[in-house]
Amino acid sequence: MRVEFLGTGGYHPNERRQTACVMLPEIGVIFDAGTSFFRVPERLETRDVHIFLSHAHLDHIAGLTYFLAPLLNDDVDNVRLYATTATLQAVREHLFAQPLFPIQPAYEYVSLEPQVAVPGGGVLRHVALEHPGGSTGYRIDWPEGSLAYITDTVANGSYIEFVRGVDLLIHECYFPDERSDWSIKTGHSHTTPVAELARDAQVGRLMLVHIDPQQTGDDPIHLETARRIFPDCDVAEDLMTVDF
User: Fold this and answer.
1) 2-243 sits in which CATH class?
2) 235 falls in which pLDDT band (50, 70, 90)?
3) Which residue, 40, 151, 175, 178, has fewest beta-carbon neighbours within 10 Å?
4) pTM to 2 decimal places
5) pLDDT confidence tier of residue 150, bands split at 50, 70 and 90
6) Are the CB atoms for 170 and 209 separated by under 8 Å?
């Protein structure tokens, strides 16, 4: 399975990173729709698209407004938005409020069930995460592999069983350790607890996303700190592709 990291930053885009979006183009599954969502149409490999939103903060949903042309041009047959009922309500009532966006995209809004069948014979499950306003983490298990997407939360053991043993863990890491106090203030993660979680959950590989947009250098979260705890770890960059 191929994973494309279309947006790996948090809060707002910068010259290096757009905000959150991770795509599995072979099966039309997408996690979040941040500012990087403009990159989706040219990468579509299916006519059915399944978008799973972690929550309704703007850096995770703004890109939903960018998809009007593919819908109107009949480039896709169905686009389903999956999220909690509260997140879907926020998207419909606020992002697509008539004064802000008068032409309504033909999205199908689907409230999350405990399990969702996804293409490729996969089963998706979800977990509530700690974050101001709430957030949702996702895991998909296929017969041949597994993936978890965890963003906008303070890394801790509360969801360790949820991600245990996945082949690929995509996890936010907004701050380096020296800014751990900001993790608590903002409901985000810093380097060491994320790496410890990956180690303790015995995941196969760890990819770090949702990087602080104020950090534009090559090592925003001190990667060697994470690798000393969990060696198979990388910071994702926009347009990076990973197979698992």
Assistant:
1) alpha beta
2) very high
3) 178
4) 0.98
5) very high
6) yes
